[in-house]
Amino acid sequence: MPAPCVLVVTDEPLIRHVVARLLTSEGYTPLVADGGEADFGSLDGASLALILINTYRPDLSGSEAVERVRAAFPGVPVLHLEEVLSRSGAGAVDDLLESVRTLTTSERRALDRPRAEG
């Protein structure tokens, strides 16, 4: 089974880099974007398990950023990076990885579940 793809959307290059490396070390396939519409166009057709987004942005409100991501990737779970990374120290990394594991595992289960015949 291929590694789940996780999209990391933030306008902060250091956070994109660190989170992508962390995801790679845990066996995920990270894709990164700064959140511009051109970024999402280049990801057309990507099979995403999860989107990690930084909603504290100078160019958009948090709700606009989330709306843009959800419009580009309907049905993909979205996790706000601020909610997890606001904790200090190693706890933030552990919490992020636990959240990613939980959300990508539940997403896989939903995809593997047989659909009811109509």
Tally of separate helices? 5
Low-confidence stretches: 112-118
- The helix-and-strand class reads alpha/beta
The percentage of residues in β strands lies in: 15-25%
Report on the biggest sheet. Answer: 4 strands, parallel
Query: How many strands appear in the DSSP assignment?
Result: 4
Tell me the CATH superfamily. Answer: Response regulator
Radius of gyration: 14 Å
Count structural domains: 1
Do you know the CATH architecture? 3-Layer(aba) Sandwich
Mean pLDDT: 80
> What pattern of helices and strands is seen along the backbone?
EHEHEHEHH
CATH class: Alpha Beta
Helix content: 40-55%
CATH fold-type name = Rossmann fold
Identify the strand order in the major beta sheet: 2-1-3-4
Give a description of the structure.
With 118 residues, the chain is of the alpha/beta class. The protein has one domain: Rossmann fold. 49% of the residues lie in helices and 16% in strands. The chain is built from five helices and four strands, in the order βαβαβαβαα. A four-stranded parallel sheet has the order 2-1-3-4, sandwiched between helices. Mean pLDDT is 80; it is low at 112-118.
